[in-house]
Design goal:
The structure holds two protein chains of two kinds. By secondary structure, chain A is an all-alpha fold. Chain A has a single domain, classed as Orthogonal Bundle (MetI-like fold), CATH 1.10.3720. Helices cover 80% and strands 0% of the residues of chain A. Chain B has one domain: 3-Layer(aba) Sandwich (Rossmann fold). In chain B, strand 7, helix 5 and strand 8 form a beta-alpha-beta unit. Chain B is globular and about 50 Å long. Classes of the chains: A mainly alpha, B alpha/beta. At the A-B interface, helix 8 and helix 9 of A face loops of B.
Chain lengths: 286, 236
């Protein structure tokens, strides 16, 4: 009965999705569909600013935000702010991802390693991320190292957990196939374990990157003289909401681009996997 | 020649013991096709897994050409109940798994050859998700064949398939039988076992209760085999 009603619901959803797909709007190319909502939001925002529904010292009009970004672009400082934030996320992500991947594989493959490492890692996961700040400042100073360390911590946990659970959930029957065909340990890892856990690893990398971006802002808000987080604090201190909103928009755009980069680069490794996403993409391409 | 000598297997779990096989002895000759039949839990799959080297014996030993085997060997291949294809590898690479130590050129030759033998020529680039259950099981058979084993073990290769897909798999096994491949087949398809096997072995409660040519299925001696066959008739 439950399955039947669930099936009915899926059918209804499918019909609704097909009806929506038939609208002219949704026949446009994907990137164009994606920017329709931001344009609508900007138009509403522009209207609210024009009619002074919201005071301009709280919500400046879009053109003021664009001007603020243009000023920073012209004096060359915007590029260096973006670059420093990007480099912090990059190094934090690389350190966090490498450590998490090594420990995730070790604890996933070896029960002994899991018993040794996992309780401590799980306990450390329970520590609120911002609680690390004083310790990292004490250990690494107030400059780049402490920020990168904080970002690495944020990136580490989702990748580690996804990878460890992914390996543990690999079907024992598949490993048995490796035994029947006399695959050695390296071949078993290369042909069965690693490709089998790529979906979980990519999910971990994407969540890790998202947390990395959250943590970079936290790190820059706490004390930095450069970066997008610094621009937000600067805007707050100097009473320039346009600067805060401009930094926020840039932050969102750059974060989205980096997330897309992971998504696109992981796609060739996931083409075997049929998900709702793939099915809808195939339907659109057909 | 495969010698199964006084093999017993006892599973222990939470202070409970289960005697899956009791002092079982059997000789399987080269090019012989043996079909193991019996109720679920009678020990036939355990025997197959022991021959494949996937389970250790509690006592007794398995010899292949007078060499004791205790772990999987490149001379014995196995096809499971489900195809067990790696979803992340295409058909070509799934078959390649069994011959990784060969050169790329040899691999390509063997894979194309086995795909042809199982009737799936030019399908190497397909993903497992694009195959029907019967096709997937034939890929699993191709994977087992590619390593050129001396014997292939089949563990109920059609029991996970829809009825309309069974025929193609049985046809593939039948053609292997015609080629003279040594095979041990655990199956519930009694008619198929009767057609293809040189010898039928009926197992019950971990022992070989009766064995002989396929005509033993027409005139069984033991009461237990009679009951088993009538229960199979009822199922049909």
């Amino acid at each position: 009965m439950y399955i039947f009603s669930k099936h009915k619901k899926i059918n209804k959803l499918d019909k609704l999705s097909k009806n929506l797909s038939n609208l002219v709007l949704f026949k446009l190319p994907q990137p164009i569909i994606g920017i329709i909502l931001p344009i609508i939001i900007i138009l509403i925002w522009h209207f609210l600013a024009l009619t002074e529904t919201i005071r301009s010292n709280l919500l400046p009009p879009p053109q003021e935000v664009i001007n603020e970004i243009l000023i920073l672009t012209r004096d060359g400082s915007l590029f260096s702010h973006i670059l420093i934030t990007l480099s912090r996320v990059f190094y934090g992500f690389i350190f966090g991802a490498i450590t998490a991947t090594i420990l995730g594989v070790l604890t996933g493959v070896s029960p002994l390693m899991r018993r040794f490492f996992d309780p401590t890692i799980q306990a450390l996961k329970a520590v609120p991320s911002l609680a690390w700040v004083p310790l990292f400042i004490l250990w690494f100073g107030i400059f780049e190292d402490s920020k990168i360390a904080l970002i690495s911590v944020g990136v580490f946990f989702p990748i580690y957990l996804n990878l460890m659970m992914g390996i543990r959930q690999i079907d024992k029957k598949m490993v048995e196939v490796a035994h029947v065909y006399n695959l050695n340990s390296f071949q078993t890892i290369r042909w069965i374990l690693l490709p089998g856990i790529i979906p979980e690893w990519v999910t971990g990398l994407r969540s890790g990157l998202a947390l990395g971006w959250m943590f970079v802002i936290a790190a820059e808000l706490m004390g930095a003289s450069e970066g997008l987080g610094y621009l937000m604090i600067d805007g707050q201190m100097t009473g320039r909401p346009a600067l805060i909103i401009g930094a926020l928009i840039l932050f969102a755009i750059i974060r989205k681009i980096t997330a897309e980069l992971i998504y696109v680069s992981s796609k060739p490794f996931l083409k075997w996997k049929v998900s709702l996403d793939t099915m809808q993409e195939e339907e659109t391409n057909a | 020649m495969l010698n199964i000598e006084n093999v017993s297997k006892i599973f222990k779990n939470n202070h409970k013991t289960l005697k899956a096989l009791q002092d079982t002895s059997l000789v399987i000759n080269k090019q012989e096709i043996v079909s193991l039949v019996g109720q679920s839990g009678c020990g036939k799959s355990t025997l197959l897994r022991i021959i494949a080297g996937l389970e250790k014996t509690s006592s007794g030993q398995i010899k292949l050409n007078n060499k004791i085997i205790t772990k999987p060997s490149s001379s014995i291949s196995m096809v499971f109940q489900e195809p067990r294809l790696m979803q992340w590898l295409n058909v070509f690479d799934n078959i390649r798994l069994s011959i990784l130590s060969d050169s790329v050129k040899t691999q390509r030759f063997k894979i194309n050859d086995t795909l042809k033998r199982v009737g799936l020529e030019n399908m190497g680039s397909l993903w497992p998700r694009e195959l029907s259950g019967g096709m997937a099981q034939r890929v699993a058979i191709a994977r087992a064949l590619a390593m050129h084993p001396e014997a292939i073990l089949f563990d109920e290769p059609t029991s996970a398939l829809d009825p309309e897909l069974i025929g193609s798999v049985l046809q593939t096994i039948r053609s292997l039988a015609n080629e003279g491949m040594t095979m041990v087949i655990v199956t519930h398809e009694i008619n198929f076992a009767r057609d293809v096997a040189d010898r039928i072995i009926y197992m019950d409660k971990g022992i070989i209760a009766e064995q002989g040519p396929s005509k033993i299925l027409e005139s069984p001696k033991s009461e237990r085999l009679k009951q088993f066959l009538s229960s199979m008739d009822e199922e049909i």
